[in-house]
Amino acid sequence: RAKRSEDEHCLFFSQEMNAEAAARLSLEGDLRRALQLGDQLAVHFQVQYDLRSGQPSGAEALVRWTHPGLGPIPASTIVGVAEDSDLIHDLGDWVLRTALAHYANWRARGCGRLLIAVNISAVQFRKAGLVERVIALLAEHRVPPADLELELTESILMQDVDHAIRLLEAFSHAGIRLAIDDFGTGYSSLNYLKRFRVDRLKVDQSFVRNVTENGNDAVITRAIINLGHSLGLEVIAEGVETDAQYAYLGSVGCDAVQGFLLARPEPAEKVLNTLLGHSVAS
Ligand code: C2E
Ligand code: MG
Ligand code: MG
Ligand code: MG
Boundaries of each EAL domain copy (predicted)? Predict the structure, then answer.
């Protein structure tokens, strides 16, 4: 139990720090152990739907961690803790590998082809060798590159535009799809957008939330959809919670939707049942 006393030692010396920093320090150690053990971590999936056919078209992989003492830890906290340490690379690889393994299993059990969306963090994106690792993992799980979509935020892309352009080229050369997540909340310049080789824009949920009540959010949502289509990109809206939002997005030509109205993020086994139910019904 040397590890445990080491942690207590750390906590003892952190008394002068603020509580949040101390909590982070111990979460970091706990996450490191969780990655070694594996069983506290999971990848859940939220199904995405094509707006025209109403059929499932993809699923976003979202990391989940049930801490033995604290219970479920929010994904944004997990990623924050991992990014502040070197853990994000192991975590990112683990999420990718686990998501692809689940998808390969779904396919083997009769599920049709889907887009599997995986979030990539800023730190992961900056480190050399990401493209090669993703390609190797796809080959390992025999998943076609075209079935994987990596989600990047505008701020990740704008941090180092030349690096981003090169990496996006490499991914798209390998046949891997790319999406800009939380679109509209960052600082991407339209001038760069045309140079970023991406396939899809993901309208941020902050616009979708009030799309039927707030005129400005409706205008912005329509503008993103039109901008995307003009650039030859698909557009998906996230955070769809009501029938009215769903109907509105359909009426303005959005291509796909994701949100609690249609499906919550759920364990892989549950998602497979939903998906197989769908393909039987169709
Ligand atoms: P995101 O990529 O924008 O993911 C969408 C988030 O919105 C998810 O939260 C999802 O559960 C939530 N969501 C989906 N539909 C609705 C809805 O209708 N209403 C509302 N209010 N929320 C909805 P989650 O799982 O807590 O993840 C939060 C963020 O953490 C993600 O935002 C993403 O930035 C990050 N994240 C999650 N998993 C991973 C991961 O494996 N790797 C990395 N790098 N980041 C991840
Ligand atoms: Mg995402
Ligand atoms: Mg998002
Ligand atoms: Mg987000």
Answer: 24-279
